[in-house]
Write a structure and sequence with these properties.
Elements: H1 7-25, H2 39-62, H3 68-76, H4 78-110, H5 116-133, H6 135-145, H7 149-160, H8 171-177, H9 191-199, H10 209-234, H11 259-296, H12 300-303, H13 306-319, H14 332-354
Helix pairs in contact: 1-6, 1-9, 1-10, 1-11, 2-9, 2-10, 2-14, 3-4, 3-14, 4-5, 4-11, 4-13, 4-14, 5-11, 5-13, 6-11, 7-10, 9-11, 11-13
């Protein structure tokens, strides 16, 4: 059975979702000419996410026990069904992109002799199994994966030794602001938090809000340091050299030239990246299933088939890569989808303030 998550499981779920989706897609939302101040997009994204969380907190205070789907139906009527459906369609696209990002390094670095369809199928089956176990099991998995954060932190610490400090100068801020493309480009990294808060139940979200914000802040700090080090090591425009396994050799070659050590570093970071990608793909699938069940009012007996059905759709969309694609430095789909989710929450919050009874 699915019980509301406790804060001990809810907070790791939030943190791993931020790291998984943020590290996975933040480089793909930036202009390729961005310099050392790429972390500014993370700051702006964090501030926007805080606004979204405050709106969710207010909505839960006025309509306790309800979700994003219920708010849309209550405040927008039939238009709410359409708005919620668009949100879930965006989540489906994000899920497909997350699965593809998960299978790419596995297919190129580990199972490179395995057919693509089998590689994708194996990943989707694992994600489906974890999602079927329920939100409590997913929260426990995220708690375990939080043990990988010190490993990633060690990589960041080593990377600071290779940062060119001459590039860290206030004069570059004006230069880099021209290449921020969209100033909300860091928002996609925090969208999973908004989805989790509005579609996954937890106990006393309003009372635990003082713990949610520091958790989101910690995720923003790690993402910001990551974005800073990418260009700090590789130079202005270094976002173009952002490797798939997160900064695999950054700051490590200078410490040891041995082949074994370099392979150990690569394997470690590939494992961290795979774990984070697996978590965020499962979270998105679970969020999508919760939304579909609520939107279509699927009976409890039939709801167990929702996740397998969605997994089949995700598999087909991932297998035919021409249907949903992403490109480096040009992803209006990711940014516009994230902004729509935030804007939709803002509209619901505004309507809840204007209408006392909350009826359309």
């Amino acid at each position: 059975m699915n019980h509301p998550l406790t804060s001990k499981l809810y907070l790791p779920l939030i943190l791993m979702s931020i790291l998984g989706f943020g590290i996975m897609f933040h480089p793909f939302t930036l202009n390729k000419n961005i310099g050392v101040n790429a972390y500014l997009t993370i700051v702006f994204g964090f501030l926007l996410a805080v606004l979204g969380l405050l709106a969710i907190r207010a909505l839960l205070g006025k309509y306790p026990g309800e979700s994003l789907i219920d708010w849309g139906n209550r405040l927008l009527g039939r238009a709410g069904w359409l708005g919620s459906g668009l949100v879930l369609a965006i989540v489906l696209v994000f899920t497909v992109l997350a699965v593809r990002r998960l299978t790419e390094p596995i297919g190129t670095s580990i199972l490179f002799l395995t057919p693509e369809w089998a590689n994708i199928l194996s990943c989707v089956l694992v994600i489906t199994y974890i999602a079927q176990l329920g939100e409590e099991a997913l929260g426990r998995l995220c708690s375990i994966c939080c043990g990988l954060i010190p490993v990633f932190g060690l990589n960041l610490l080593l990377g600071f030794g290779s940062v060119t400090l001459a590039q860290v100068h206030p004069a570059y801020i004006i230069r880099d602001l021209r290449y921020l493309n969209y100033w909300w480009a860091g928002l996609p990294g925090f969208v999973p938090v908004l989805l989790i808060a509005s579609l996954i139940r937890t106990r006393d979200f309003r009372d635990r809000f003082r713990y949610v914000l520091p958790t989101v802040g910690l995720g923003a700090l790690i993402l910001g340091i990551t974005a800073f080090e990418i260009v700090g090591v590789f130079g202005a425009g270094g976002i173009q050299r952002y490797p798939r396994p997160v900064m695999a050799f950054m700051g490590t070659i200078r410490l040891a030239q041995e082949y074994f050590f370099q392979n150990f570093v690569l394997t470690t970071h590939l494992f961290v990246f795979t774990a984070q990608s697996l978590v965020i793909a499962t979270v998105l699938l679970r969020v999508l299933a919760n939304g579909i069940i609520a939107l279509c009012r699927i009976p409890r007996k039939r709801s167990r088939w929702v996740i397998p059905a969605l997994a089949a759709v995700v598999y087909l969309l991932t297998l035919f890569s021409d249907l949903i694609v992403y490109a480096r430095y040009n992803n209006p789909l990711i940014i516009s989808g994230s902004f729509f989710i935030l804007a939709y929450l803002g509209i619901l919050w505004l309507l809840s303030r204007l209408r006392r009874d909350g009826r359309p």
